[in-house]
Amino acid sequence: MLLAVDIGNTETTIGVFDGIELIQTWRIATQQERTSDELALLITSFLRLGRLPRDADISGFAVSSVVPRATLAMRELVPHYFDVDPVIVEPGVRTGMPIRIDNPKEAGADRICNAVAAFEEYGGPAIVVDLGTATTFDAVSADGELLGAAISPGLAISANALVQRTAQLRRVEFVPPSRPIGKSTLEAIQSGVVLGYASLIEGMVERFTEELDGNATTVMTGGYAEVMEPNLKCIDAVDPWLVLKGLRIIYERNAE
Description:
With 256 residues, this protein is α/β, with parallel strands linked by helices. The chain has 2 domains: 2-88, 2-Layer Sandwich (Nucleotidyltransferase, domain 5), CATH 3.30.420; 104-246, ATPase, nucleotide binding domain (Nucleotidyltransferase, domain 5, 2-Layer Sandwich), CATH 3.30.420. It has helices spanning 36-49, 68-82, 109-122, 155-164, 185-211, 225-228, 242-255, and strands spanning 2-7, 11-18, 21-29, 60-65, 87-88, 126-131, 134-140, 146-153, 217-221, 237-238.
């Protein structure tokens, strides 16, 4: 079985694959200060508590990380606790996807995994919208090339900044109001935060689609994907575990 770990700025997602089937997932808060031993304790605890087959054996380990300290911790813990060498998505690893940007090393590991999985599952051209700490838009060509991206402040970052920089506005639940023109401060904030963010996503997808000659499949993933999906008309598929699926594909390409 393959253990896949995606370490983001806010959350760390862990998944177990039995062949191509994702059979178990967990999410934990990312804490840069965690040592390799602490991470190993968390991961092994999840494996013990998970509904895995009795003969389950972790024979592979794949890692995507945008947190350098956590990447180092994973390098230490995997050989020690799992007795395998991890496949870490970084320069030099075979992804099977050409990266057509000025400096390919700048492409985040999670974005590469998203693009690989989107092309494998949905074909190209494709637009991947990842709603995490930041919101990223990645364009994949019909030939399976990562063409470039746009990066925006994430939904939570935007909402938190609004509250922190104003004296009388407060946090709201990420649900849309009954109408765009809010009749109360609560409705007005929800309209601006939720519907306004939906307009940002739809506007960027429209611009990307135009640059991709008017034809692209739009796939959305990330922690806020299911929250925002009901407010969007431009999304063809929602795949909350896209990064983990990309990790599995990249692992297999490097294990051959």
